[in-house]
UniProtKB/TrEMBL annotation, chain A:
It is an enzyme of class 1 (oxidoreductase). InterPro entries: CO_DH_flav_C (IPR005107), CO_DH_flav_C_dom_sf (IPR036683), Diverse_Substr_Oxidored (IPR051312), FAD-bd_PCMH (IPR016166), FAD-bd_PCMH-like_sf (IPR036318), FAD-bd_PCMH_sub1 (IPR016167), FAD-bd_PCMH_sub2 (IPR016169), Mopterin_DH_FAD-bd (IPR002346). One of its GO terms (molecular function) is FAD binding. It comes from the Bacteria. Keywords: FAD, Flavoprotein, Oxidoreductase. This is Carbon-monoxide dehydrogenase medium subunit. Its EC number is 1.2.7.4. Residues 2-178 form the FAD-binding PCMH-type domain.
TrEMBL record, chain B:
PANTHER family: ALDEHYDE OXIDASE 1-RELATED, XANTHINE DEHYDROGENASE. This is Carbon-monoxide dehydrogenase large subunit. SUPFAM superfamilies: CO dehydrogenase molybdoprotein N-domain-like (SSF54665), Molybdenum cofactor-binding domain (SSF56003). Its EC number is 1.2.7.4. It comes from the Bacteria. Residues 25-134 form the Aldehyde oxidase/xanthine dehydrogenase a/b hammerhead domain. Pfam families: Ald_Xan_dh_C, MoCoBD_1, MoCoBD_2. It comes from Planomonospora venezuelensis. Keywords: Molybdenum, Oxidoreductase. One of its GO terms (molecular function) is anaerobic carbon-monoxide dehydrogenase activity. InterPro entries: Ald_Oxase/Xan_DH_a/b, Ald_Oxase/Xan_DH_a/b_sf, Ald_Oxase/xanthine_DH-like, AldOxase/xan_DH_MoCoBD1, AldOxase/xan_DH_MoCoBD2, AldOxase/xan_DH_Mopterin-bd_sf, CO_Mo_DH_lsu. Its cofactor is Mo-molybdopterin cytosine dinucleotide.
Length: 293, 796
């Protein structure tokens, strides 16, 4: 039987309460959201927090919907909620594409958006999706709320801009009318972490690409993004040749490592192939009135 | 055909499983559900190294930890003569390491504590000093000059060689190869896989210091063999040992042997005088319990240019891990690999198998392989496709041309196996028709012209040899492979059947009741099946190698017939007639003996049962009651077979494979409960998809196990499985009392190669002939680049 080391448990009843608990228990305390990353690590005794601070009761972190010209995703929004929300699908089909292939329904019912981003696993799918759409992370500490551009959020494997004593409260994603987006993942089996995955967002104007966002995961792309490929696309006419070249550039700039999911050369190939595919799909979705295919 | 054999399923065919009433309510009792008063909990400290000398073990801090009741080390066991135990292959295995650790995850110490948490906490307090040694990881280097010697515990050992074994006629085979028009050769690996049952292994041991009786609850597929082994190893009197195998959450062969944890739990209970539970976790299960396969094979086929197969030659390097612990009949160190000529009528064959030690966990035949027939079928069915490539022939036609014809049965193979019965062309034709093979080939040709995902069609035809086995040839550690059965009929005609085998999901409580019901003309609901408790059941060797129905099922039919014959004598007394004048009939109202020609003038089995217990005057020599016992020693193995067709789509841009269709025609002789047969086939087909496409158990150069969790070692889900399309033919076994052949492993044996053949068929336009399992997206893509992966080593 796998059993964790000894720990204490506290249940937060508001964001200020959670922040106070974090402060009181110090660096050996950990926030627990869905627990689908933290609890397995505790059972394997790879993580040994002394105190768990449960934020599952914080309704204020569960908001999901359009606020002004942005989509607001609370940190406690479950994968399944993001997947089920029609407004999310209308403005950002990339999230529905991604959520369909993240884990399995059991994990999706419980795992949270905030937990996924804070876990900062180098293979996290949502990190690539949020990078592609250039979200802003909302981080709250004793001194108030900070806004962190998503591409500054991830500092390295398992490291984020959330400091000890802070909470990620949510993400804001600017809505671009008419933009298209898509996500595609290669996995060894349903519910598996990606071998490689890519997401993209494209906004077209006057026959050329006005904005391009490309997210990549599991291939060692810095900040889960492909800025060189994005820069190449902006101002160009969308099309097979441009998308293939963007894929090639993205592949050249990532830094995959071999593991049992595949050799580095294969992952690099996938980065290019998947970028090409998601650009093609995002372009097909772009421009149609509701953003859907 | 023998008596009672019909082409239709037996009476009561597709009845619902009796055991499901408790399983679907969550009311099964698995070993972890066993809770005894005063029970303690054990945990095992395992080696982080694949190969290291143990310099010292200091358990003092763990012993001093609050709640810890005992810490058992290799030294403790050595003092009791229990540090080593015999394996099922005439080797020894360390229970707790004393001298060296020989694979990552090997057992080093055992903590007994008040609860599972304390036991785990205390493991971290044990200090072990290791001196790391160079490990042997690549089996192909195990016999190299200067390779580290793993088993220096065995005096005089200078290398890692375990055994050489051969079958067939070398000279005759070589001669055929010399003059053959066409020969092909192919190296292939059947990688190490693991049965990964959802329920891991564990035990509750309860030694009663007053009565001296030891009771062990443990999910074992072979409870009686365990009892005898405990008696031999621990020196406990066998009648003071009771092994109870409760409900089992999957076995597949991984729960045949005795694991160090079981012995530790027993020693823990003897040491503390309290019951001790030990349950391993998922990683422990994957790292240390019996693996399967790990056969590095080279196949060669000699044929005529028009596709007549003449001979097959095989060389195998078998990786047995650090201890030779495969479970197989004594005279068969390579299991039944000798049936590698498969379903084909060929002139000559020869194989050589060399077993070697490596720094990996022991095991070898676990995972529904029918004693290595999986490897044999994989070899021959892959080779047929390689030959088809060479000849540019259609793989279905090539198989059809070479199948053993029905009139050749009983058929003696070039390696000496006597196949009992079969109509192979009929099964293959049915599978091809069901799959609409010609249409598939047309679609494939179309696709190859038009681009898009690649379409592949793969075929396999397998023959198994199951139901081990004839006592003269087959034993495990000297215990012959015959099974007992005992049938009691209560006065009201309700019956209790006691059998030695133990279900791990096969539905014995239903099918064995159906056999008795069929033979006695009673309802299966009136037959209770008792199994899995050595104090309550007769001796027998257990459930694995698809042997339950062929052996214990036969014993069941025979003991029921004995009861029926006793009933005849009692009925004769009741009817004041001669037993010879009575005839047996089964109608809607049940089974009855009656005077020939006047069925109304008879007695039902229930009436007879009551009379047998009454004051009825019985003829001289008739003891009373109807109860009977028997032991069944099978005259031969049974040979189930089948034809499978798999259709896949491959995305050449990503290497992803999708199984689009899978058609499986199985012939397992007479089907007792077709629903249960189909359920077992479904499970085995899913196994095949898993092995072919995703199950990866590789080791890095330090011997780290790279598949030690379900995130690394993937099991297929419903998303990877198509809706299975099943078909059947029924060719009864001529020597089995009800004509049944066993089916538990058929699909696991036959399906992996069908999937592999399909994927490689899709890749054929790229000049690909072979790639090893698992055909993960990375492996498929690498194969397309001309560099298939070596799947037993870490990807670099
Ligand atoms: C079987 C399985 C398969 C999976 N497959 C995939 C997959 O294919 N792709 C994928 O991307 N993911 C996958 N996951 C991960 C899944 O998405 C997890 O739910 C997610 O990683 C973590 O979310 P959680 O809410 O469970 O976080 P938790 O486990 O509760 O927390 C994770 C970490 O984040 C911290 N944290 C959580 N919330 C906050 C917050 N608001 N502020 C600050 N810190 C916080 C915690 O302290 C902890 O360190 C899988 C998980 C499992 C178990």
């Amino acid at each position: 039987m796998q059993v964790p080391a000894r720990f204490e448990y506290e249940r937060a009843n508001s964001v200020p309460h959670a922040l106070a608990l974090l402060e009181r228990h110090g660096p050996e305390s950990r926030v627990i959201a869905g627990g689908h990353s933290l609890i397995p690590m505790m059972k394997l005794r790879l993580a040994r927090p002394e105190v768990l601070i449960d934020i599952n009761g914080l309704a204020e972190l569960s908001a999901l919907g359009v606020e002004g010209d942005a989509l607001l995703v609370g940190a406690l929004v479950r994968h399944a909620e993001l997947l089920a929300d029609p407004e999310v699908g209308r403005y950002f089909p990339i999230f529905h594409d991604a959520e369909r292939v993240i884990a399995d329904p059991v994990v999706r019912n419980r795992g949270t958006v905030g937990g996924s981003l804070c876990q900062a696993d180098p293979s996290e799918d949502l990190s690539a999706a949020f990078a592609a759409v250039r979200a802003t992370a909302l981080v709250q500490g004793p001194g108030g709320v900070r806004e962190v551009p998503i591409r500054d959020f991830h500092r390295g494997p398992y490291e984020t801009a959330v400091e000890p004593g802070e909470l990620l409260t949510g993400l804001r994603v600017p809505i671009r009318p008419g933009a298209g987006s898509a996500y595609e993942k290669v996995e060894r089996r349903a519910g598996d972490w990606p071998v490689a995955a890519a997401g993209s967002l494209l906004r077209l104007g006057d026959g050329v690409i006005a904005e391009a966002g490309i997210g990549l995961t599991a291939v060692g792309a810095e900040h889960f993004a492909a800025p060189e490929a994005e820069a190449y696309l902006v101002g160009r006419a969308p099309g097979a040749a441009a998308f293939a070249e963007a894929g090639r550039i993205a592949a050249a700039h990532c830094n995959p490592r071999a593991d049992q999911r595949g050799p580095a050369a294969y992952k690099r190939h996938l980065a290019g192939e998947l970028v090409r595919r998601v650009l093609t799909r995002a372009a097909a979705r772009a421009g149609s009135p509701e953003g859907e295919e | 055909m023998t008596e009672g054999t019909t082409a239709a399923p037996m009476g009561f065919g597709r009845m619902h499983r009796k055991e499901d009433a408790r399983f679907v309510r969550g009311r099964g009792t698995y070993v972890d559900d066993v809770r005894l008063p005063g029970m303690l909990h054990g945990a095992i400290l395992r080696s982080p190294y694949a190969h290291a000398r143990i310099v010292s073990v200091d358990a003092s801090a763990a012993e001093a930890h609050p709640g810890v009741k005992a810490v058992i080390t290799g030294e403790t066991l050595a003092g009791m003569g229990l540090a080593w135990m015999p394996t099922l292959s005439a080797d020894v295995q360390a229970v707790l390491a004393t001298d060296k650790v020989r694979y990552q995850g090997q057992e080093v110490a055992f903590v007994v504590a008040e609860d599972a948490y304390t036991a785990r906490d205390a493991l971290e307090l044990i200090e072990v000093e290791y001196e790391p040694l160079e490990p042997v990881i690549d089996a192909r280097r195990a016999l190299d000059e200067g390779a580290p010697v793993i088993r220096d515990d065995v005096e005089g050992r200078t290398g890692n060689h375990i055994f050489d074994w051969e079958a067939g006629d070398r000279e005759q085979t070589d001669a055929v190869f010399e003059r053959a028009e066409v020969t092909v050769a192919q190296d292939m690996l059947y990688p190490r896989v693991h049965p990964a049952p959802l329920e891991t292994c564990g035990a509750v041991a309860d030694f009663d210091r007053v009565t001296g009786k030891l009771t062990v609850w443990c999910p074992t597929q072979a409870p009686h063999a365990h009892r005898t082994l405990y008696a031999l190893v621990a020196g406990l009197p066998e009648h003071k040992i009771r092994v109870i195998s409760p409900d089992i959450g999957g076995g597949f062969g991984g729960k045949v042997g005795i694991y160090p944890g079981y012995v530790c739990a027993i020693v823990g209970s003897i040491a503390t005088g309290r019951p001790v539970k030990w349950m391993e976790d998922r990683s422990e299960n994957l790292m240390s319990t019996a693996f399967a396969r790990d056969y590095h094979m080279r196949g060669e086929v000699a044929a005529t240019r028009d596709g007549r197969i003449l001979a097959i030659r095989v060389k195998v390097l078998a990786d047995h891990g650090a201890f030779n612990g495969t479970a197989q009949p004594t005279k068969f160190p390579a299991g039944f690999f000798g049936v590698f000529t498969g379903s084909y009528d060929i002139e000559a064959a020869h194989c050589e198998v060399t077993g070697v030690y490596t720094n990996k966990a022991p095991g070898g035949v676990a995972y529904a392989c029918s004693f290595r027939i999986t490897e044999a079928v994989y070899l021959v069915e892959r080779m047929i496709d390689v030959l088809a490539c060479e000849l540019d022939a259609d793989p279905a036609e090539l198989r059809m041309k070479n199948l053993i014809r029905p009139e050749r049965f009983p058929y003696t193979s070039p390696t000496g196996w006597e196949y009992d019965s079969g109509d192979y062309p009929r099964a293959l034709r049915l599978a091809l028709d069901m799959a609409e093979y010609d249409k598939l080939r047309a679609e494939q040709a179309e696709r190859r012209r038009g681009g898009g995902p690649l379409l592949g069609v793969g075929i396999s035809f397998f023959t198994e040899a199951v139901g081990a086995g004839p006592r003269k040839h087959m034993d495990i550690l000297g215990l012959g492979m015959a099974d007992g059965a005992e049938l009691r009929v209560h006065p009201t005609g309700k019956a209790v059947l006691r059998v030695s085998c133990q279900s791990q999901g096969q539905g014995h409580e239903t099918t064995f009741a159906q056999i008795v019901a069929h033979e006695l003309g009673v309802s299966p609901d009136d037959v209770e099946v008792v199994h899995g408790d050595t104090d309550q059941t007769p001796f027998g060797l257990g459930t694995y190698g698809s042997r339950s129905t062929p052996v214990s099922g036969a014993a069941t039919a025979i003991v029921a017939r004995k009861v029926r014959e006793r009933a005849r004598l009692v009925a004769a007394a009741m009817l004041e007639a001669s037993p010879d004048d009575l005839e047996w009939s089964v109608s809607e109202t049940g089974g009855r003996w009656s005077v020939q020609g006047s069925a109304e003038h008879g007695r039902s089995i229930q009436e007879i049962a009551m009379a047998a217990h009454s004051n009825l005057e019985l003829p001289e020599g008739v003891e009373g009651h109807l109860d009977a016992v028997t032991v069944y020693n099978p005259p031969n193995l049974t040979y189930p077979f089948g034809a499978y067709v798999c259709v896949v789509e491959v995305d050449p841009g990503t290497g992803q494979v999708k199984v689009r269709r899978f058609t499986a025609v199985d012939d397992c002789g007479v089907r007792i409960n077709p629903m249960i047969v189909e359920g077992q086939i479904h499970g085995g087909l899913a196994d095949g998809v898993g092995m072919a496409l995703m199950q990866l158990m590789a080791f890095d150069e330090d011997g780290n196990h790279l598949g030690a969790s379900f995130m690394d070692y993937l099991l297929p889900t419903s998303m990877e499985c198509p809706s299975w399309e099943l078909g059947e033919t029924v060719t009864p076994s001529p020597h089995h009392p009800i004509g049944a052949k066993g089916v538990g492993e058929s699909a696991t044996v036959g399906s992996p190669v069908a999937v592999v053949n399909a994927v490689l068929d899709a890749l054929r336009p790229y000049g690909v002939r072979h790639a090893d399992m698992p055909l993960t997206p990375a492996n498929v893509w690498s194969t397309l680049q001309g560099e298939p992966l070596r799947t037993d080593l870490a990807i670099t």
